[in-house]
Structure formats: structure tokens, C-alpha cells
């Protein structure tokens, strides 16, 4: 995912290999919650008309996730433990149970060469634009592409920094979205990253392929592009196609695209419009229809606290949303939702014998 994958500059990588430098610990904490109201809610039937991840309440305050991430780097080595508690963390690790559901990421890394870093453990997928941590997204509700794509991988990957403009990632991992699972045939995940000379435009070409536990062969191609048009306006785009071929039913697929337009008139205020289209006519995601959505989100920054007022409209080609009186079957092609999210985020860093310092 776009915000989950970042690479330091070449000079920083060289400095990171100096074993004489003291180790550094970076702590990141966050907490988010929200109020959500869907205008076509289904009364006492319990339908919230949410077909994407995480925001599954209706006319109530809901906890998103409390998160704590610790990253320690010393010389060429380092370790990251990223823990989360709450409905958002449980939905993210939906195949895990018990204490595993609270482990969003846990991995070790070793910088073999100035341009090569090896990582082993559980890590966020590089596929897609959005990430599970609310403070790294401009919209609080999630896109269809995030929901029906991969969440994370458990395996080994190599981050390669070839130049200021070219980087790559290659990894071998187990079944998608499983922290622990018997490995039948490994998945391959690859990313090629191109940056413009002025770094204002970034492009990520991603591929994920392998065989699921069900026996289906899965392939996903994904493209993410972001560009800074000015100091106030930026654009982002995501296009993705996924195909699964099973011995019995044959091939099924979905494809989708999302466009993000962001306007930040001042540091304390920003607006993001997300327009997305998701076609599951191939019935791979389980929707069985085409869905479009418009989401307008504000970002009001009050120090480490961000308020996100949001309005969202979803429209499908077939009835997939419930009306106020529906009990068993959906009868609506459209639905509207408003929410107000509160996201608190703080990062501190320090070295042995030194007090922690807050990072903005």
C-alpha cells in the first residue's frame, strides 16, 4: 500500500550501516473512534449497509483501534512490533484468533548492503493505496479496493534501492492474510517503484500471485500513482485487477479503480474527495455486481488530534443495500452515510541515555 512502503535515501542507508552509532527506538501510538449514521439502515435487523472494512456500526459511537508500534534500529539490524486492539485490528487480522489478532506487524530486518534490506515476519501488503492505520489515510471509511484486496503477508522480502528514482521489492510469503498457515505453494509479491527527479510524482507497480488454501490460483496486478500538483493540491490513483482460477468453477475476477483529489488550503485544514468504481460481475469478491462510491472527507488538525467529518454515497447496479424495513433481502441500489471520526496520533524517538522527543 502506498503509505506503508517507504524507502530512505541512499546516504541514510549508508549511515544506517555504521555499527558505531547508538541504537534508536521510535514509538508510534494512535487511537481512533467514530460516530456513523446510515440513512437507509435496516431497523432492528442489524444491517449497517457497509460493504467495506472497519466502519460497521449504525447510529452509535464506535471504537476503531488503539495502536502501539515500536521500531528499534541498531547498526544493520532492527525489529518492528506493531500491535493493535479493537474492532479495526480484529477485522484486519480476521483469520487470526486470540493474541495473534492484536499483532498487525512483527518483523526483523537486516541491511545486507547499502542498497539491500532483508525483512522476515508479518508485514503490510505493498498492494493498493490505503493502509489499515487511520492516521495514514485521508478518508476514514475504506475503499472497495482495500477491502477486497490483500491486507498483509507473512514471509521474507527484499527492499532494493537502485537509485534516487528506482526502487523495488520482491517477497515470498504464505497464503494471503494468514499469520500462521501450512505452506502449500508460496505466494510471490513484487513491487517496482519509480520516482520523478523532483519526487513530486510517485508510481508503484505491484503484482501478487500464488495458490490459496482453497486451491485457487490467484493473480493480482495493481498500479498506484500519486502526484503533487502544487503546495495545496495533490492527486492519487489506484487501479487493480484480481483473477482467481479454481479447478471446479473456473476463473472469476474483479477489477476496480479509485481517484483521490486532495486540497489543503492551510496546514490545519484539508479536504479529500475519493471517487471509486468496483466491478465484481465475475463474483470473486462476493458482491456479484458493480458498485460506485463518492466519499468527501475533511481533515481538521488540532495538534496530534485530527477530526474527520465525512459524507459518503454508494450506488450499485443491483440491490445490495437494505432499506429501513428490510429484514432478509436487500432492496436498495443506493445508500448514504455520514460519520465523524476522531484520530489521535503521536510519534516519539530516542536513543539510550536520552529522553524521548516528539516527532511532528
Number of β-strand runs: 17
* Shape category: globular
Q: What proportion of the residues is helical, as a percent range? A: under 10%
Q: State the strand order across the main sheet.
A: 1-2-3-4-5-6-7-8-9-10-11-12-13-14-15-16
Report the major sheet.
16 strands, antiparallel, barrel
Q: Provide the gyration radius in Å.
A: 21 Å
Spans of 5+ residues with little confidence (pLDDT < 50)?
Answer: 1-16
Approximately how much beta-strand content do the residues carry?
A: over 45%
Oligomer: single chain
Secondary structure class reads: mainly beta
Mean pLDDT: 90
Task: Output the number of helix runs.
Answer: 3
How far is the first residue's CA from the last residue's CA? 22 Å
Instruction: Name the helix and strand elements from N-terminus to C-terminus, one letter apiece.
Output: HEEEHEEHEEEEEEEEEEEE
Structural overview:
There is one protein chain. The protein has 360 residues and is mainly β. The protein is 5% helix and 54% strand. It contains 3 helices and 17 strands. The chain has helices at 10-16, 87-92, 144-147, and strands at 24-38, 60-74, 77-85, 103-113, 116-124, 152-161, 166-173, 187-195, 201-211, 217-228, 233-246, 250-266, 269-279, 290-302, 305-316, 334-350, 357-359. Residues 1-16 have low confidence and may be disordered.
Amino acid at each position: 500500500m502506498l503509505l506503508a512502503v517507504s524507502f530512505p535515501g541512499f546516504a541514510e542507508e549508508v549511515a544506517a550501516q555504521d555499527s558505531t552509532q547508538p541504537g534508536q527506538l521510535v514509538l508510534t501510538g494512535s487511537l481512533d473512534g467514530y460516530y456513523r449514521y446510515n440513512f437507509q439502515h435496516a431497523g432492528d435487523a442489524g444491517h449497517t449497509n457497509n460493504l467495506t472494512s472497519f466502519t460497521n456500526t449504525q447510529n452509535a459511537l464506535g471504537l476503531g483501534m488503539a495502536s502501539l508500534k515500536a521500531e528499534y534500529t541498531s547498526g544493520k539490524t532492527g525489529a518492528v512490533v506493531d500491535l493493535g486492539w479493537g474492532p479495526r485490528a480484529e477485522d484486519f487480522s480476521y483469520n487470526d484468533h486470540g493474541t495473534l489478532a492484536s499483532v498487525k506487524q512483527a518483523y526483523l530486518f537486516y541491511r545486507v548492503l547499502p542498497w539491500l534490506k532483508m525483512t522476515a515476519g508479518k508485514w503490510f501488503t505493498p498492494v493498493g493505496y490505503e493502509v489499515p492505520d487511520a492516521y495514514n489515510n485521508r478518508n476514514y471509511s475504506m475503499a472497495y479496493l482495500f477491502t477486497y484486496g490483500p491486507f498483509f503477508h507473512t514471509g521474507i522480502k527484499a527492499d532494493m534501492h537502485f537509485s534516487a528514482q528506482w526502487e523495488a521489492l520482491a517477497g515470498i510469503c504464505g497464503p494471503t492474510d494468514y499469520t500462521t498457515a501450512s505452506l502449500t505453494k508460496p505466494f510471490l509479491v513484487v513491487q517496482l517503484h519509480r520516482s520523478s527527479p523532483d519526487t513530486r510524482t510517485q508510481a508503484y507497480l505491484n503484482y501478487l500471485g500464488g495458490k490459496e488454501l482453497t486451491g485457487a490460483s490467484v493473480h493480482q496486478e495493481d498500479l498506484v500513482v500519486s502526484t503533487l500538483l502544487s503546495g495545496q493540491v495533490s492527486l492519487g490513483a489506484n487501479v487493480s485487477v484480481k483473477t482467481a482460477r479454481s479447478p471446479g468453477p473456473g476463473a472469476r475476477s474483479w477489477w476496480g479503480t479509485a481517484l483521490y483529489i486532495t486540497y489543503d488550503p492551510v496546514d490545519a485544514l484539508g479536504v479529500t474527495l475519493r471517487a471509486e468504481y468496483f466491478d465484481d460481475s465475475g463474483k470473486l469478491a462476493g458482491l456479484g455486481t458493480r458498485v460506485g462510491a463518492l466519499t468527501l472527507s475533511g481533515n481538521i488538525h488540532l495538534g496530534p488530534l485530527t477530526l474527520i467529518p465525512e459524507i459518503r454515497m454508494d450506488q450499485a447496479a443491483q440491490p445490495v443495500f437494505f432499506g429501513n424495513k428490510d429484514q432478509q433481502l436487500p432492496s436498495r441500489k443506493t445508500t448514504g452515510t455520514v460519520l465523524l471520526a476522531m484520530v489521535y496520533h503521536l510519534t516519539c524517538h530516542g536513543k539510550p541515555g536520552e529522553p524521548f522527543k516528539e516527532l511532528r
